[in-house]
Amino acid sequence: MMVARSDTKFINFLHQELSLTTADIAVALRHRELDRGPLPMLLWQYGLVDLEQLERIFDWLENQI
What we know:
Elements: H1 5-18, H2 22-35, H3 39-45, H4 51-63
Helix pairs in contact: 1-4, 3-4
């Protein structure tokens, strides 16, 4: 599975700040390839993050721009 360089910082954030496992992230990445949905929403839809964590993700992404 290929991960874009732009996703590397985001994946590091998910590991370090939200303590998601590599397996959790891999599930969402696989579904992103099929569903073409945004990774944060897929993480939430598949129950890998809760609403508070989803908000933290969006805050982090907003600060990366």
